[in-house]
Specification:
The chain is an alpha/beta fold and 401 residues long. 42% of the residues lie in helices and 13% in strands. The strands form three sheets. It has a seven-stranded mixed beta sheet with strand order 2-8-7-6-5-3-4, with helices on both faces.
């Protein structure tokens, strides 16, 4: 095929999502009749609560364009007020122009990076980091400085190293995910306060990805915005809570001058977010007590699944390294002691595991430049019994290769 070179070659920095590539192979195998155990996807296994769906379904039967029409790019005021009221419960107080809806978390990432960064800016990230950031940072042309998190230290961010870096060079921003994807690490209050203090002292911004903020199993989520409101841009999604990843709704909040420009990027890329998704979220957030009950139910189910996969790893993979995830949907499993002696990468292992054993995983190298022999395992999509079977098949493959 002849390729016309007359285009913006910077778009070639956008790569196909690694999970999308895995999905293509997975779906091919499923069409061939193979049973695939899904340890790859970050998709919830529990839908929005039935009471919210029932209310929305009744409204969908109305002879009205309300749930099908364009909305303001920033979002309908009633939805924004519902989100603001929920955040106020956590002592996060926002003015109207400090929050905007986005077309899911990925839209919030893209818009914020587009607004904040100039080519050549220094940006600090913590490795491992959600793979969705890497191509966007490449496209922005920034200088990425990565700080490796030690699995033996629970993937805690090395704030001493960050202070050393920020003392020596001008940093535009630090990016952090909490609860983390892929490690499940959460920030403690001391870490949140210190990170915010460094931002104030050295004049950098913090982009904090809070997509999993309600899925915390031990400890609590600490809102960085409270500690440095002029320096924090928070990114959120409704993909995990209430669980509508396919409806593409998220939001960003932070300093007004940034958020209003984020809104403009959303306007020029998606125009507005889905009206029906906005309405479901408004219904869901407005009944605080039933929402709280739903979240507790979801956390109970996911915590049990997390403990199941950990138990099976302990039984069958004695040389594997991991840190117990305190939030989110994932466990980051380091298999270096199994793979390095055999000169096998995690990507090769993940492919063999899918094709030969019918278990879908994501290589840790998609999240990290340092951890080359790890797998990211999702513990939310499958039943406890199938989680155990997936780990047993992984252990079997490691014995065979």
């Amino acid at each position: 095929m002849t390729v016309n070179p007359d285009y913006n070659i910077r778009v070639d920095l956008f790569k196909e999502s690694p999970t999308r590539k895995i999905d293509v192979i997975k779906e091919k195998l499923q069409r061939e009749g193979k049973d695939i155990i899904l340890l790859s996807t970050g998709q919830p296994s529990i839908p929005p609560p039935k009471w919210a769906r029932e209310k929305l379904s009744r409204e969908l039967l109305e002879e009205s364009m309300r749930l099908y029409a364009y909305t303001p790019t920033q979002g309908r005021k009633t939805v924004l007020e519902a989100i603001k009221q929920e955040l106020e419960e956590h002592e996060v107080k926002l003015r109207d122009k400090q929050i905007t809806l986005t077309a899911g978390g990925q839209s919030a990432l893209y818009a914020t990076i587009t607004v904040l960064f100039n080519e050549g800016d220094n940006v600090v990230v913590f490795d491992p980091m959600y793979f969705g950031y890497w191509p966007l940072l490449d496209y922005a042309g920034v200088n990425v400085i990565d700080i490796v998190e030690d699995i033996k230290q629970g993937f805690k961010p090395d704030l001493d190293k960050l202070e050393e870096i920020t003392s020596k060079k001008k940093i535009k921003a630090v990016i952090i995910v909490t609860p983390d994807n892929p490690t499940g690490r959460i920030l403690t209050r001391d870490e949140a306060e210190r990170l915010a203090s460094l931002a104030e002292k050295h004049g950098f911004y913090i982009i904090v990805d809070e997509a999993y903020r309600t899925l915390v199993y031990e400890g609590e989520h600490h809102y960085l915005y409270k500690y440095a409101p002029g320096r924090v841009i928070a990114l959120n999604a409704f993909s995990k809570d209430p669980g509508i990843p396919g409806w593409r709704l998220g939001f960003a909040y932070g300093p007004e001058w940034i958020i209003q420009r984020v809104k403009l990027v959303v306007q020029e890329t998606v125009y507005c977010t889905p009206a029906v998704a906005q309405r479901l979220v408004e219904i869901y957030l407005s009944d605080r007590e039933r929402r709280r009950q739903h979240i507790e139910k979801v956390k109970q189910v996911y915590r049990r699944k997390r403990d199941t996969i950990i138990d099976e790893i302990n039984k069958t993979l004695s040389k594997a390294e991991y840190t117990k995830p305190h939030g989110g949907m994932f466990l980051f499993l380091n298999l270096e002691k199994y793979l390095e002696p055999k000169s096998i990468t995690a990507e090769q292992l993940s492919l063999k595991l899918l094709e030969e054993k019918g278990v879908a995983t994501v290589p840790g190298s998609y999240f990290s430049k340092h951890y080359k022999h790890a797998l990211r395992l999702s513990f939310v999509s499958e039943t406890p019994e199938r989680l155990r079977e997936g780990i047993r098949r992984l252990a079997q493959l490691l014995e065979e290769i």
